[in-house]
Automatic annotation (TrEMBL):
Keywords: ATP-binding, Ligase, Metal-binding, Nucleotide-binding, Queuosine biosynthesis, Zinc. Pathway: Purine metabolism; 7-cyano-7-deazaguanine biosynthesis. It catalyses: 7-carboxy-7-carbaguanine + NH4(+) + 2 ATP = 7-cyano-7-carbaguanine + 2 AMP + 2 diphosphate + 2 H(+). It comes from the Bacteria. Its EC number is 6.3.4.20. This is 7-cyano-7-deazaguanine synthase.
């Protein structure tokens, strides 16, 4: 990392983006966050964001000093032009094209484009996202090739030298929990378990060992399995 790099973290309020935030706070002297309201079915993630940010600050005086402004962007147009299980109340299922109907076409492409625009205005040089193609639902806009191509396109289109970093790209959910532990110890792991939100259905009624959620949707299953493997490896 270049000593003058500054970062904008795509921060939803979920496990992956919170882990990425901690990763960025370890590395950059100035870190800002950006979130998107796109009419998501699990909009509860937006309500937990302020608490998670506040508690991340409380974990470390250094992180508190480094963590700057949070930006919330209205991208409700996504829900108006898409018809998916994340933007409407339909059953989660596989589609004929081999992708789950939780895939929101263009979502990450638009997220990164808007983030790059905000970063341009704020003088931030690195965009940090929680995309992953090791332990994911098969979304094509989470692939490494997609992010690399997008980085080229954004820099060409804005005459910038911004860099897209995806710390979770080649690790599974167990390793994501491990990365959080390495960054902030058990306090960060517990913050992620009980304050962040990942469940696609927006359920926060039941608290499991791995956190809140329905326990049945693909996001909950990945999170639960990864935490069980992480806890077992630590003898918990």
């Amino acid at each position: 990392m270049h000593p003058t790099d500054t970062a904008l973290v795509l921060f939803s309020g979920g496990q992956d983006s919170t882990t990425c935030l901690a990763w960025a706070l370890q590395r950059f002297a100035r870190v800002e966050t950006i979130g998107f309201d796109y009419g998501q079915r699990h909009a509860i993630e937006l309500s937990v964001r302020p608490t998670v940010l506040e508690q991340v600050r409380a974990l470390s005086p250094v992180w508190n000093e480094r963590l700057g402004e949070d930006h919330m962007i209205d991208l409700s147009l996504i829900s108006k032009i898409s018809d998916t299980a994340l933007t409407s109340n339909v059953e989660i299922a596989m589609q004929e094209n081999g992708l789950p109907n939780t895939f929101v076409p263009g979502r990450n492409l638009l997220f990164m484009t808007v983030a790059a625009t905000v970063a341009y205005r704020r003088g931030l040089t690195v965009l940090v996202g929680g995309m992953c193609e090791t332990d994911f639902s098969g979304y094509p806009d989470c692939r490494d090739d997609t992010m690399k191509a997008l980085q080229v396109a954004l820099n060409l289109g804005m005459a910038t030298r911004q860099r897209i970093e995806t710390p979770l790209m080649w690790i599974d959910k167990k390793q994501t929990w491990e990365l959080a532990f390495e960054a902030g110890g058990q306090p960060l792991v517990d913050l992620i378990r009980f304050e962040t939100h990942t469940c696609y259905l927006g359920e926060r009624g039941e608290r499991h060992e791995w956190g809140y959620g329905c326990g049945k949707c693909p996001a909950c299953e990945l999170r639960a399995r990864g935490y069980a493997q992480f806890a077992a490896s630590r003898g918990a």
